[in-house]
Write a structure and sequence with these properties.
Blueprint (H helix, E strand, L loop, with lengths): L10 E6 L7 H17 L4 E6 L5 H12 L5 H25 L4 E3 L2 H4 L1 E3 L4 E5 L1 H9 L2 E5 L2 E3 L5 E3 L4 H13 L3 E5 L5 E2 L11 E2 L1 E3 H9 L7 H10 L3 E4 L8 E4 L7 H4 L8 H11 L14 H4 L8 E7 L5
Parallel strand pairs: 1-2, 1-9, 2-6, 3-6, 5-15, 9-13, 12-14
Antiparallel strand pairs: 4-5, 7-8, 10-11, 13-14
Helix pairs in contact: 1-3, 2-3, 6-8, 7-8
């Protein structure tokens, strides 16, 4: 899907997941990463999609269950949203500290709306206005609003999906997904010395890997990117490290079947996070030990990834 970002210069969407936002130092590092990108391409604008910091969501859920044994979906979604909003504010502050013109938006201002049938629309007026006056606009991942203007969550790995939907609706040149590993590998490089970094994959290959258990990028996000023709750049904050580019490029028949398809692809990432935090971070596509955030039957099932982008500015 094509669109207009409403500002001069090119536009990129960069998603920063909970696995790379683990504390104050990591927010500063993420801000420096974006500053370096701006220095390299001064005319470019960025939409930064952020998750809650690592461990925050499970802590919020534990607090809710300490109050009421079975909290409502609506109450949990509202509480969980505070983790993403906190990340928006913190990253915006760190960008301001570096002298970067930045604006942080909440979920309502971001404009992603989910209909009763799972269709997605983007009211991009507030985003366009923020992009016109700022180098970086920071928005919450994982969240949208419904027809009643209530906050809803987008399911497991929802920040990946947020980034792709915004990239499609705003007509971005690309969507970058910043993880705690520099893209895709043929095996766990910490366990297999022969593991190969995979610098380029097609959407079909990446979907095949997702079906086989590789959860580095949310499957719905890959599907949405394929439909919109938005290239995905999967990378880490280490700018010297390689990245994996996922696109619609043509590949020899059967290549996807020859790629190793195993959960071992990113086992080291999960293992490292669990050692550090004792729990898994649901914002990083791997679910949660407490379990309700991503498995509730009341979560919206997104049946239509063709984002309808409205560009009118708010009155």
């Amino acid at each position: 899907m094509s669109g207009s970002n409403g500002c001069t210069g090119s536009l990129a969407v960069v998603k920063l997941g909970g696995s790379v936002l683990a504390g104050a130092k990591t927010y500063r590092r993420a801000a420096r990463y974006l500053r370096n990108r701006l220095d390299a391409a001064p005319g470019e604008r960025f939409v930064a999609v952020v998750s809650a910091r690592a461990g925050a969501t499970d802590a919020l859920e534990r607090g809710a269950r300490g109050i009421v044994r079975t909290p409502t979906t609506r109450s949990l979604d509202l509480l969980w949203s505070t983790g993403e909003i906190r990340s928006v504010a913190l990253l915006t502050l760190h960008l301001e500290a570096l002298g970067i013109r930045a604006a942080g938006l909440d979920v309502h201002a971001t404009g992603l709306r989910v209909g009763s049938a799972g269709e997605v629309a983007l009211d991009a007026g507030r985003l366009h206005a923020a992009l016109d006056g700022n180098q970086v606009t920071v928005v919450p991942g994982f969240l949208a609003i419904n027809a009643e203007l209530e906050i809803v969550t987008l399911g497991r790995g929802g920040s990946d999906l947020t980034a792709v939907l915004l990239a499609a609706g705003l007509g971005a040149s690309r969507c970058e997904l910043v993880k705690d590993v520099p893209g895709y590998f043929s095996a766990d490089p910490h366990r297999d010395a022969t593991a190969r970094h995979l610098p380029a994959l097609t959407f079909a290959e990446t979907l095949a890997l997702a079906d086989a258990g590789c959860d580095l990028v949310q499957r719905q996000a890959i599907e949405a990117a394929a439909r919109a023709g938005i290239p995905l750049v999967v990378r880490s904050l280490d700018e010297s490290a390689p990245a994996s580019v996922v696109s619609a490029g043509t590949e020899p028949a059967g290549r996807a079947a020859r790629l190793p398809a195993s959960k071992e692809f990113h086992a080291i990432t999960v293992e490292k996070k669990e050692k550090q935090n004792g729990i898994r971070n649901p914002n990083d596509s791997r679910g949660t030990t407490l379990g309700t955030r991503n498995r509730s039957a009341h979560r919206p099932h997104l049946s239509n990834f063709h984002v309808r982008a409205g560009g009118a500015r708010p009155r």
